[in-house]
């Protein structure tokens, strides 16, 4: 029984890690986003493409054989799925591209100016000394 409880605790720890939770949120948001893109394709783009091409993809089918029980290939639905995929990939690409650009601009704004030097070189012995030094600790020369 001790092993089982350790396994369950380890599983709980795994589930509650941030990256697993982020992945779960991503899957849920991705599902909602897919529904939006599917609606965009079926309700807006397919009718518009139908005007120009004269074809509504969802009605494209090929009956294999004859009779009432003959199988039917709905290849129009496949074309619609491919278009959905391409639109989804394009929109995600544009979102990532925009976020990367925004992130790059924010990082540039957050970059600090170089800090003032804290050391200087002694003109007599060429050793590195503190910037506030008035006498070199190495050669004991007086500095300006």
Topology, element by element:
Elements: H1 2-15, H2 18-53, E1 62-63, E2 72-73, H3 75-110, E3 119-121, E4 128-130
Antiparallel strand pairs: 1-2, 3-4
Helix pairs in contact: 2-3
Descriptive account of the structure:
The protein is mainly alpha-helical. It has 2 domains: about 1-110, Non-ribosomal Peptide Synthetase Peptidyl Carrier Protein, Chain A (Orthogonal Bundle), CATH 1.10.1200.120; about 115-144, no CATH class. About 60% of the residues lie in helices and about 5% in strands. It has a two-stranded antiparallel ribbon. Strands 3-4 form a two-stranded antiparallel sheet. The chain is elongated. It starts with a helix and ends in a 14-residue tail after the last strand.
β-strand percent reads: 5-15%
Task: Could you tell me the CATH topology label of the largest domain.
Answer: Non-ribosomal Peptide Synthetase Peptidyl Carrier Protein, Chain A
Structural class given helices, strands, pairing? mainly alpha
- How far apart, in Å, are the first and last alpha carbons? 78 Å
State the CATH architecture of the largest domain: Orthogonal Bundle
In N-to-C order, the SSE pattern is HHEEHEE
* Proportion of residues in helical segments: 55-70%
Strand order of the largest sheet: 1-2
- Write down the overall mean pLDDT: 80
CATH superfamily of the largest domain: Large-conductance mechanosensitive channel, MscL, domain 1
Radius of gyration, Cα only, in angstroms?
A: 33 Å
Largest sheet: 2 strands, antiparallel
What is the global morphology?
elongated
The tally of domains stands at 2
- Separate helix tally: 3
The low-pLDDT segments are none
For this structure, what is the CATH class of the largest domain?
Mainly Alpha
Number of strands: 4
């Amino acid at each position: 029984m001790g092993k089982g409880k350790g396994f369950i605790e380890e599983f709980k720890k795994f589930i509650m890690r941030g990256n697993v939770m982020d992945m779960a949120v991503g899957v849920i948001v991705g599902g909602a986003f897919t529904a939006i893109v599917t609606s965009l394709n079926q309700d807006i783009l397919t009718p518009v493409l139908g005007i120009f091409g004269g074809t509504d993809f969802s009605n494209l089918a090929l009956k294999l054989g004859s009779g009432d029980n003959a199988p039917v290939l709905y290849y129009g639905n496949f074309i619609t799925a491919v278009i959905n995929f391409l639109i989804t990939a394009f929109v995600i690409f544009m979102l990532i591209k925009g976020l990367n650009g925004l992130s790059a601009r924010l990082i540039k704004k957050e970059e600090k100016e170089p800090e003032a030097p804290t050391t200087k070189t002694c003109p007599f012995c060429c050793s590195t000394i503190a910037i506030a030094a008035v006498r070199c600790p190495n050669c004991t020369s007086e500095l300006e």
